[in-house]
Each structure stands twice: as C-alpha cells, then as structure tokens.
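Journal club prep, shared notes

We agreed each person brings one worked example of a sequence with its structure written out as tokens. Mine is Polymer-forming cytoskeletal. I'm keeping it raw so we can talk through how to read the token line rather than staring at a rendered picture. Sequence first:
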Amino acid sequence: MFGKKKQVTNNASLKRVNHAPSIISEDMRLTGSIISQGEVQLDGRIDGDIKATHLVIGTTGVVEGIVEATSVIVKGKIIGSLNASEVNIKNNAHVHGDIFHDTLSIEAGAIIEGNLKQRFEKESLTLINDESKPVSDVKPLINEDDIGLSFVNKQASNKS
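Then the structure, token by token:
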C-alpha cells in the first residue's frame, strides 16, 4: 500500500541460523504440525505432527500425533507413531503407538503400548557351502526296504 514490496518467504529462509533449541514450555498447547531443522524441547502439549532433527519430550510434554526425527528422547507421553533413527525412552515415559527405529534404548519403568520395528533390517541369506554335491554322493533318506517303517521305527532299526 505504501510502495514497499512484499517479502516472499520460501523454504530456504527457514534454515537454522543459531543453534539454540526451540522451546515449547509447559503452559503452551499447540494444535497443528511443527517442522524444525534443529532441536525442539517440548514441555507443553502438541495436538499434531512433529518433524524435527532432534526432539526432547520433557516429563510434562505430550504429543498426540506422528513424530519423525533423527533422534528422540522421550520423558513424557506420545500418543501416535514414532519414527526416528535414535530413540531413547526414559523411565517415566509413556508411548502409545508403534515405534520405528534404527537404535532403541528403553529404561526400566517406561510404558510402551505398540509395536517395536527396526527400520533398516536387512535380510540376507548366505550359503554355507557353495559347492553342490553330485547326486551320487547324496544319501537317500528312505531306503526301499524301509518304506513301511515310520521315522521313529527307522531310527530304532538303525541303532540295532
């Protein structure tokens, strides 16, 4: 209106300049999603999703939604799924939902109601011996004269 240009905000301007954590204090209650490229200290309540690099949920902190982070320390309560590389659940924490993790530590006294699933499990089958034997070297499990015997009876007949 007075001749100033409107400033356009983009995602590049959201990069962290300082390294101080973002703090949501005990008397705060937020509804909506939070995205942070740094550390978030949550002592209040969030009804929504959180995506952060590092997240610390304090003893009075409550999240009702999906939590995604590189590392998470839970001292409070999460109602929803948790997806992080490093998960550290302290002794008075409550997690009501599935936990997807690379590394997980749970202190005695923590309450978890949900499934624990490691994110990057690699199933690989390895051969014990690559060399296959010729068919002539393989012993048959059943001889033609033992066809009428059960497995237990075959073992008994082999001992005598």
